[in-house]
Amino acid sequence: PSPSTLKQWYQRRVRGKTRSCAGISGKSQALFATVFCTRYLDLFFSFVSLYNTSMKIIYIACSVGTCYLIFMKFKSTYDSNHDTFRVEFLLGPCLILALVLNHSFTFSEILWTFSIYLEAGAILPQLFMMSKTGEAETITSHYLFMLGAYRGLYILNWVYRFYTESFFDPIAVVAGVVQTVLYIDFFYLYITKVLKGKSLVLPC
User: Fold this and answer.
1) Contact 186, 131 (CB under 8 A)
2) Residue 118: which of 88, 149, 83 has the closest Cα?
3) Rounded to an integer, what distance in angstroms lies between the CA atom of residue 120 and that of residue 94?
4) Chain-wide mean pLDDT for the chain?
5) Any residues with CB less than 8 A from the CB of 6 and at least 6 apart, and which?
């Protein structure tokens, strides 16, 4: 789908007549907000460029704003009964990994590493929610596909940088591969069902 089409889907979901966040995992969105807040905390003590700073602020603002819409403005449509993934089982291991496996044992580096590990599993509450409901609306399916495709493009970027710059970051690469693997089943269902105009219903 084109960016303009995706924007229209988003507007229909958040600002349209339904004014609903049904089918969206608030816990996944809260984890993504945590990812960007911990990764870009260097906003307060490091300046690279205006573009870099602006993008960091946009990422944080959008993720926090999404949480506001889910947990406050459209709280009545939030399906908390199915959004029951135990995020502490994800946050704890990610923090321990960040303390043990990092590039340097500094506060900012540990936060950055934590955000990389956490992003790899931040989609789990959404996938878990889908497994409980057994289906996903078309707009939710498109959203999930774009998240997975975004990470897949990161892998292509790593391959490119490895061959052109001899750059290799094992922490980011391994976490990215793990995140992409989590999407494999969903990608299969998306291609075989959603792209053919069918509803995404999980097999029994």
Assistant:
1) no
2) 88
3) 10
4) 85
5) 142, 146
